[in-house]
Prior knowledge:
Blueprint lengths: L13 H60 L2 H21 L3 H11 L4 E10 L5 E9 L2 H13 L3 E11 L5 E9 L13
Antiparallel strand pairs: 1-2, 2-4, 3-4
Amino acid sequence: xxxxxxxxxxxxxxxxxxxxxxxxxxxxxxxxxxxxxxxxxxxxxxxxxxxxxxxxxxxxxxxxxxxxxxxxxxxxxxxxxxxxxxxxxxxxxxxxxxxxxxxxxxxxxxxxxxxxxxxxxxxxxxxxxxxxxxxxxxxxxxxxxxxxxxxxxxxxxxxxxxxxxxxxxxxxxxxxxxxxxxxxxxxxxxxxxx
Length: 194
């Protein structure tokens, strides 16, 4: 037997089809409404962010103008005097952290028998170099020369030269030595390393 549907309306249950189409339409409308709400919300946030950006740019422009005014009012001579005072303060700090015991240990290791140290005067140059003025006395200039050579071979002193020589009342040769002292780097606790 042959079964064919010759009806003009092939669906027997039209309610189900209408219900499915209604649900699909409702879902499409809800999705469209959600997207529209998101667009409105995001446009509002974009407007707020744009207003914040404009306010920040205006503030940055104002600060740049204020900085320009301050820079134009600065006195170069005053800046130089402040820099000079800072250099002096750094020199004082350097002299306070200077390790005298390390320096005297180096002298003790290099000092010949016939040479005595009378005075030591460190000073920090503007470029940060530590210069030493060492007054020594000895019987012969060869002893003092040996002391200078031994100082320089330690690597702690550089360019040690005699700046003045004279014979003192005891008949000893008194020499003023000038040279650069290469301080050892500090360790993690701020103590100089030997």
